[in-house]
């Protein structure tokens, strides 16, 4: 039985009103249609790109905006055409959208649609911090019993990593894989690579993240502040380099591409998940003469159900990525924590049901 | 040295005292630590002629022959051209002898070599205290890898070849038909790749029990009506890949209804007889029926890399000496007896 669609009014939400400044912003909600679902958001996780937006350094995420593209919540209402969820269901929300009709969308690759948009990037599409979102039903995914809203909020970043590992990198059991960057994306990639049966080396500069990586199954970790990453990878691979390298640092450092390529074996592949620098200098010769392959990886048009299933089964221990659970209105403090890399921070989740670290 | 030798056509294998061989140029001499036993070795013991399972037809002119094609040991001597540092190395034998020149060999598909021979079939193999092996056919193994598990790299690689041909990906639902050593290895190889083996089939209760102990739920085909029972158990179009490891062609017909469209059935087991099945569903649903033979060098390398994490250590069976092995072959040939491996020194 469906009730009539709720009339959603615009309301104030914790928005990014200026660089490094949060304040109330009016969140406009579109009215739900028959194929839509209305979700009351319970948890929003903060991403490295949100942080860059906060710092005024992201190409798309800019103030004024209501953030939150990693979100989970409770279904308040579903349209009469919707069968996959019921009011009361706990769901993870896929915040990514394509136009639906172009050659990429009709191939299932809306992540590379030219009109690709994401909730929580610009103010015409408010994100999870708006408190309530309206999305087409195929963008909500029921969470299995035992998976709470906070774990649901990290489905999206793990899906980014999963898509890169399984659909772009196509990691094979028995390969050696290097993940450069031990943040949530890198650690999500680690989980997927371990699950695929490959050997993993994780690189980061923060010792606590490397320790977390080891506890999640990394066979070897390299601290980039202490060691020459390329030399260490060569030493761990009989001089060959890795079959697959995932670049998951995501910062603007332009040496990362060259480093990733140098860690890739001849005949191997480098998957760019995170790099934000628009330019890079690298040894094109090594790519050509070694027949290396570079692949871009963008979001996750196909990964939510698989990731949710693995979180539910325990194969992907999503909870281990959440270092801080913060009350909803303490968003400013949460961003400071991230900016300072303080207190062992990995993934910060904002929650409307009280918070604890 | 003592060796198990196939002396003549027909059933049987003899324990013989034969001259210890020596390594020629580009060869090494191994002290064999462990030699595994596969269905094809049992077929060679029995001298099964159906579809040349075990290579009986191609072997006839090569007898007498020391059998054993899955083995590992220590290099004790080298021939000319092989570095002296190799002496003392712990190694596993890659048993495919390929010409190195044909189209397949040029891309590492030694399993598809036009002139493919096998150690333990066309050249003396590992059921002996010592064995000569081309230097190119030994791979060093880490000290952490027991010889008994190293010998299992061969069946694991054969099964991994099938699983890779099926392009099994994490999250896939896989069914394995036949859980003898090769089927079990295939199930483990699928699991290693993050797939879920949702069901295994066999008609042998003991094999199903052993598979269940490894966490693979089973269905006994002995009751008949397998296609209907599979549909009831798993539902239509619910499986991403099927690995057929029993050599039963009817199994293809059993699984087509539960297989998702556009999906693979890999034929890994040697077919017992010529089949007659309706292929129209294969066309209508764009299914892929794929043969799998041995392993490519790339698959071999990945099997070597993954064997310690594969779970194969739980499948190894009893260790017996050369003499006791004869009786175990006899039992295996009548479908009885547990898995075993041969340890020549014991």
Shape of chain B: globular
Shape annotation of chain A: globular
Which residue ranges of chain B are poorly predicted, with pLDDT under 50 across at least 5 consecutive positions? none
Q: Tell me how many strands of chain B there are.
A: 18
Averaging pLDDT over every residue of chain B, what do you get?
93
Q: Return Rg of chain A in Å.
A: 20 Å
| Number of extended strands of chain A | 17
The main sheet of chain A comes to: 7 strands, mixed
Count of alpha and pi helical runs of chain A: 10
Short précis:
Chain A contains ten helices and 17 strands. Chain A is α/β, with parallel strands linked by helices and 357 residues long.
What would your notes on this structure say?
The complex is a heterodimer of chains A (357) and B (346). Chain A is an alpha/beta fold and 357 residues long. Chain A is built from 10 helices and 17 strands. Chain A has helices spanning 48-54, 149-153, 155-168, 184-195, 207-215, 229-236, 255-263, 284-289, 304-313, 331-340, and strands spanning 11-18, 21-27, 36-45, 70-78, 90-93, 96-97, 117-118, 132-136, 140-142, 176-180, 199-204, 220-223, 242-247, 264-272, 293-296, 322-327, 347-351. In chain A, strands 3, 4, 5, 8, 9, 16 and 17 form a 7-stranded mixed β-sheet that branches. In chain A, α3 packs across α4 (184-195) and α3 (155-168) crosses α9. Chain B is α/β, with parallel strands linked by helices and 346 residues long. Chain B is built from 12 helices and 18 strands. Chain B has helices at residues 39-46, 56-59, 103-106, 147-151, 153-165, 181-192, 205-213, 226-234, 250-255, 280-284, 297-306, 322-333; strands at residues 2-6, 14-17, 27-35, 65-66, 71-78, 90-93, 96-97, 117-118, 130-134, 138-140, 173-177, 196-202, 218-220, 241-244, 264-267, 288-291, 318-320, 340-342. Chain B has a 6-stranded parallel β-sheet with strand order 13-12-11-14-15-16. In chain B, β12 (196-202), α7 (205-213) and β13 form a beta-alpha-beta unit. In chain B, α5 crosses α6. The two termini of chain B are 13 Å apart. The mean pLDDT of chain B is 93. Chain A binds chain B through residues 166, 172-176, 192, 195-197, 199, 306, 309-310, 315, and chain B through 160, 164, 169-171, 189, 192-194, 301-306, 309.
């Amino acid at each position: 039985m469906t009730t009539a669609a709720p009339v959603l009014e615009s309301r104030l939400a914790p928005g990014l009103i200026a660089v490094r400044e949060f304040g109330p912003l009016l969140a406009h909600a579109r009215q739900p249609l028959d194929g839509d679902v209305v979700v009351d958001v319970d948890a929003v996780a903060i991403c490295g790109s949100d942080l860059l937006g906060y710092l005024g350094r992201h190409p798309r995420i800019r103030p004024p905006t209501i953030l939150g593209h990693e979100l989970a919540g409770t279904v308040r209402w579903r349209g009469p055409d919707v069968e996959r969820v019921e009011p009361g269901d706990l769901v993870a929300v896929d915040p990514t959208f394509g136009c639906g009709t172009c050659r990429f969308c009709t191939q299932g690759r809306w992540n590379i649609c030219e009109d690709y948009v994401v909730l929580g990037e610009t103010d015409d599409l408010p994100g999870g911090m708006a408190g309530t979102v309206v999305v087409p039903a195929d963008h909500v995914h029921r969470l299995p019993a035992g998976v709470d809203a906070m774990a649901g909020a990290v489905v999206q970043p793990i899906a980014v990593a999963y898509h890169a590992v399984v659909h772009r990198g196509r990691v094979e059991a028995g390969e050696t894989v290097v993940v450069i960057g031990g943040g949530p994306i890198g650690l999500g990639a680690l989980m997927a690579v371990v699950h695929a049966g490959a050997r993993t080396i994780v690189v980061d500069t923060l010792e606590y993240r490397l320790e977390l990586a080891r506890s999640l199954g990394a066979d070897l970790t390299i601290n980039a502040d202490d060691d020459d990453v390329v030399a260490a990878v060569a030493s761990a691979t009989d001089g060959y380099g890795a079959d697959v390298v995932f670049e998951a640092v995501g910062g603007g450092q332009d040496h990362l591409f060259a480093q990733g390529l140098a860690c890739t074996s001849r005949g191997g592949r480098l998957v760019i998940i995170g790099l934000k620098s628009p330019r890079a200098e690298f040894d094109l010769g090594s790519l050509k003469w070694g027949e290396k392959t570079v692949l871009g990886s963008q979001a996750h048009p196909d990964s939510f159900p698989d990731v949710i299933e693995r979180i539910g089964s325990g194969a992907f221990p999503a909870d281990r990525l959440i270092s801080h659970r913060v009350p909803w209105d303490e968003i400013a403090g949460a961003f400071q924590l991230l900016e300072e890399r303080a207190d062992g921070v990995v993934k910060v989740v904002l929650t409307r049901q009280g918070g604890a670290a | 040295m003592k060796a198990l030798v196939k002396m003549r056509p027909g059933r049987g294998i003899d324990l013989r005292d034969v001259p210890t061989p020596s390594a020629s140029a580009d060869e090494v001499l191994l002290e064999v630590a462990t030699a595994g036993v596969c269905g094809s070795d049992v077929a060679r013991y029995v001298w099964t002629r159906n579809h040349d399972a075990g290579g009986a037809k191609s072997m006839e002119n090569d007898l007498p022959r020391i059998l054993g094609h899955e083995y590992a040991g220590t290099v004790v001597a080298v021939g000319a051209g092989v570095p002296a540092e190799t002496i003392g190395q712990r190694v596993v034998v890659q048993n495919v002898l390929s010409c190195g020149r044909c189209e397949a060999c040029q891309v590492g598909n030694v399993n598809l070599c036009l002139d493919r021979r096998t150690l333990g079939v066309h050249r003396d193999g590992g059921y002996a205290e010592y064995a000569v092996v081309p230097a190119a056919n030994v791979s060093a193994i880490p000290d952490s890898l027991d010889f008994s598990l190293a010998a299992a790299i061969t069946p694991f690689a054969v099964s991994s070849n099938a699983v890779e041909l099926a392009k099994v990906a994490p999250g896939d639902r896989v069914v394995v038909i036949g859980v003898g050593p090769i089927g079990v290895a295939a199930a483990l190889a699928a699991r290693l790749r993050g797939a879920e083996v949702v069901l295994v089939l066999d008609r042998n209760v003991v094999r199903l029990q052993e598979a269940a102990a490894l966490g693979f739920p089973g269905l006994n085909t002995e009751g008949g009506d397998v296609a209907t029972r599979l549909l009831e158990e798993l539902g239509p179009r619910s499986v991403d890949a099927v690995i057929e490891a029993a050599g039963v062609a009817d199994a293809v017909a059993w699984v087509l209804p539960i297989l998702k469209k556009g999906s693979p059935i890999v034929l890994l087991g040697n077919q017992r007889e010529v089949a007659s099945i309706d292929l129209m569903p294969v066309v209508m649903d764009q299914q892929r029926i794929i043969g799998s033979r041995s392993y490519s060098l790339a698959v071999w390398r990945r099997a070597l890399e993954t064997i310690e994490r594969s779970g194969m250590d739980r499948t190894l069976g009893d260790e017996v000496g050369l003499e006791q092995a004869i009786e175990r072959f006899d039992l295996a040939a009548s479908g009885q007896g547990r898995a075993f491996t041969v340890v020549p020194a014991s």
